[in-house]
Amino acid sequence: MADKLQLPPLQALVVFEAAARLGNFTAAGNELGLSQPAVSQRIQTLESRLNAPLFERRHRGVQLTESGHSLYLIVRSSLNDISEQLERTRRQRSVLRIDTDMGFASYWLLPRMERLQALIPGVEVQVTTSPNDYNFRDSNADLAIYFGLGNWPGAQTQRLFPEIVFPVCNQEIKQKIGAENNAEQLLRYPLLKLPETRPQRWITWEDWFRHHQVYGQSHSASRTFNAYSLVIQAALEGQGIALGWQPLIAPFIASHQLVQCGPQVRTERGYYLISASHKPPSTQQEKIKAWLLDEAWGFHENSALIAGI
């Protein structure tokens, strides 16, 4: 067992630090919520314990003696170290931030938040969203989930979901289309889409038609929305046909609010779990990472069963 530390009362050291820093017992008392006599009494106790004067009492304050100055440097540094470590521990234990995009947050992450939160009780989980691509330098998140090729500099990535896309519509439009999943016939209906990006971040309607060898078809009835949630809402209302990304579209397919109305396309992109590569993850981060990977694996298994694979 380690030897017991030979220390004076810690409150006396805190009072000493304030008095030395402010150069005045009254000011130190005001900062700490103590009277001037109480500050003076604690300083006297400390001086008696050390058998050395720490201050020279002057008419308008106090000044450190040589012994007092040496002690102040040590006490101030030690209290700073304790304060910084407490703040790091507080942040590490009380908040875990996850960055992602609005579509993934709304349709996949938020429905699972209660189970995620149960893994780290007492920790506030913050979910922040951005329409922009992930940028390691600009992110203060503990973890991130973003769509791309998984090649973000300065980050460790693990793919959760590949990009699997197929057209979806509501039941009313599906009845008009019929049972045949013919790519070209979708051109007869309004196509709901997101704005194009440069560089291109996800598959577009043009990509989807090209993949199914439908070329040179103009389509003036398209409707563009600046958020995927608006695209899906328009599809639910029967305003047209949207491209549905797995796993975002899965709840609407399961509830039959939307149905698949064309063949799928799979690309090399996907949703990736991202963490910093330059620092070890906390225990909370490790728990959440393992859980997210398990949830993704479970989704893939269920999708394979439904498809009859």
UniProtKB/TrEMBL annotation:
GO molecular function (one): DNA-binding transcription factor activity
Keyword annotations: DNA-binding, Transcription, Transcription regulation
Keyword Mitochondrion appears in the UniProt entry: no
Domain HTH lysR-type positions: 8-65
Protein's GO biological process: DNA-templated transcription
InterPro entries, A to Z: LysR-type_TF_proteobact-type (IPR058163), LysR_HTH_N (IPR000847), LysR_subst-bd (IPR005119), WH-like_DNA-bd_sf (IPR036388), WH_DNA-bd_sf (IPR036390)
Domain of life: Bacteria
Family membership noted in the UniProt record: Belongs to the LysR transcriptional regulatory family.
PANTHER family listed in its UniProt record: GLYCINE CLEAVAGE SYSTEM TRANSCRIPTIONAL ACTIVATOR, HTH-TYPE TRANSCRIPTIONAL REGULATOR
Name the record gives this protein: Choline sulfate-utilization transcription factor
